[in-house]
Amino acid sequence: MKKLINKKGFTLIEILLSIVIIAISAIAILMWQKTSWSQTSYTNRLMIAGHVIEKQIERQRMIIAQDPTNNFNQFKNTDSMNIIDSTTKPIINVKWYIYDTLHDPSGALINNVCRVVLKASWGPGKKDTLKVETCISKDF
Amino acid sequence: MSSFFFKKIFINLSHKNGLSLTELLVVLAAGAIVVLGVYSLLSSTLWSYNLQEQTTDMYQNATYTLKRLTEVIMQAGTNLPEKNYDVIFPTPGKMNDFRIKINRKNAKHEFTSDISSTTKVPVDSGNAFNGMDSLVKRDTGGIVSKFKIQNVIITASTSIPDTVVISSPASFVSGDVVYADTMDRYFIDGKNFCYNSSSYILAENIDSLAIKFYNIDDGETNEWKKMISASIYVRAKTASPDPKYKHPVFKDGYRRLALNIKLRLRNKFYF
Q: Nearest C-alpha of chain B: how many angstroms from A32?
């Protein structure tokens, strides 16, 4: 006991300072871990978002392929939302917009081809997004 | 500041009275707490690293399996006869096993003159036929016949055509077309997605795989001539169970990812 109250020992400030330094180091490691985990999750979600968009494009192709005459008429100026693919709960939302059929530089209609914009969003507040703009053709 | 700090330690260490029992116990307790904290932190870091690695592997295995199958099935029938020739052969009763004929190197030759019964078939590019199993002949009437390829002779000269040696003689007339095909197999062996044999693993830890083929009315079919679309369902899981996790459906420690797609067969048309 005599030694513990020895004036030559560590002061309270020194001990507190040591604890603070150790705590900061531990927090830094934990933060790094958290960042690393978030980055991995983001990459994985991005991979899935790409798949979901691809799936939507293929789905549209399937529908269009079964429509012999309308030339995308039923999709013109429409927008839709879908929630697809998950292990146990929905994770990624996809919105797609199918615009009017395309025209060539001379203004002539290009049959059976449409411009499509697809946007996948995920994460908190659906702030992470992946946008793809492409053309879908009835025949390929 | 630092010299003062070390000086104090030195004084303490050289103290003739040594440490008291209480001091020793306090130091041991403090040391134990620090060691436990460090161990806990390291353990948590290791767990997190393993989990990230396994999860990433699972995502990659699932997406790769789906991508590979999608491309293979989409392209079914490319550079092969359109009629009187089957391309996809699902294994009855098994949705995770099918065979597909492919013309891997785009081997094709159209005859411009007649050739009577021969086992040595002249072609423009022997390289494309090299390594393939069968020579597929489509005559001008659309009738398909097959011959086993025994050898391919590739000549260095441009004036002498390459030759495909087949097992039995065949005759060709102007307008006939020959292709080459080989049979590939994709299947699940235990928990791995394999190509041709169990030793050729394309993706590990595939928990479930279901490939279905559909006709024009969206009914399931195993007949190539009726196939118009296909669906692929892939479920991958982590390599080892996580003791801190319990899957809500399977009630085990494996994390899982399920993906699916329905696609058009590119060489088949609805109308």
A: 10
